[in-house]
Amino acid sequence: MRSYTGVLAGNLILAAFAGLAGPAFLVVAYVARVEGAAWFWVAGASGIGVVGTALIPFAAVRSARQEFPRITRRDRAGDTRSAYGDDTSVVWAPRSAGGAVGARLVRADVREASLVGYDPEGGASFTTYGGDHDPAEFKATVGLRLWVHDGEDTGRGSGGREVTEEVRVPSLCLSAITAGRLAVLVDPPDAPTPGRVTVLWPRSLLLAGTRTCRVIDLDGRVTDVTRFARRQLEQMRISRSVGGVVMDGDLIDLRRLDAATAARYAAVARDVTEQRAPVTEPGEEARRLAEFLPGEEGAFGSVPRRWSRRGGHLVLARFLSLRGRTTFQYHGPVLDTLLRVRPADGSPAYDVVRRLTVPMNYLAVLHHTRDVVLRAGPNGRSLVVDWARTNLLAGVTTAQVIAPDGVGIPLPRRSEALWPLMNLLVAHGVSNPTPVLDLREPRMHAVSDAVTDLIRGAGTRVEEVLRDRLR
User: How far from each other are the two terminal CA atoms of the chain, in whole angstroms?
Assistant: First the structure.
């Protein structure tokens, strides 16, 4: 397990090599002074040397902070509860192409998805594109088999056609594919490419439910319309017809719209027959990309002895906002994030603002959960994002427990048992840097009974699996 001190030391060495010009100018200034050179030569070389040398630690600290996901008190945000509720999810993704004139906005169901390719240059280093939030190089190419609905229905009617194509997907929008609902434009018959399908990625996040949506009506009442696919699709059509409607976070306030547009939104709200769509459409296994995308494998996590003995513990947080930037790494985009941290001691939750590299495999399941596991220092002053534990909790990786008698018990993705199991292992100082918890190992004897009790209390599905394997 990497530590901030280790990352800082490594970056300090790299910065020292990169900034050798600073110390070199100090040596030149010293030699010039000894040789009796003119004062302005000595002063100039000394000034450049001092500035260059002083920049080395600053560059090292800045680089380490960018690379290591550490959260400190200085990252705390002000009071954001009025704008962001606990269930708020605001994802600011790059705009998609507008499509041809006269293109129709419809729903498309993802029946099958597969990763075709992802191979950007740069490796683990940071790559920044000036002014470009949506570079093609850092998009995964995904093969999609879609059912495109050409009617005004919810996407369940008979009218439609199957389309197979390869698309480049912004990392922030991968969860829309896993959820199985996309908002697309279909070119009209008189367009140069009649029938062509263009995916609107930010709107697909809304349709998928990854980005939440609330509407304040003309009377001031707030309605949550997240995952009401038919209503949201109609709202998107209205927004597109008027040139766009601004969302404040996840909020659309009809009182701020012109009367005609507000009336159209209000008319859509009168449809009370629609049922909320599921978190994910049936057949998710055929659309899952998380196992093939870059990012840490999920694990129960390492437990450094010193950290555990001094009172280190785990804390749960939740992403409230994710905003894309122009900087990327191989395994994920660098995002401006807002997290709500819930301290383990029951003290009031607080929000933090932190720029983080978020792995692509986690972004692919963002419609399921936005929870993040943090490692809290013994003094509680700093937190570190633990992506291995986060990805196991989020269902990126499937956990398994091997019972003392050798029977393998697979835990369902996002099982309620995962979080207490992680805390149990930390409390006993037991490391398990894999998603498989083998209770036959001698180091597991102290927690074996407690693990078994947690699994049995997590739900009947695990017990059913266990009974089936014992038959």
Answer: 41
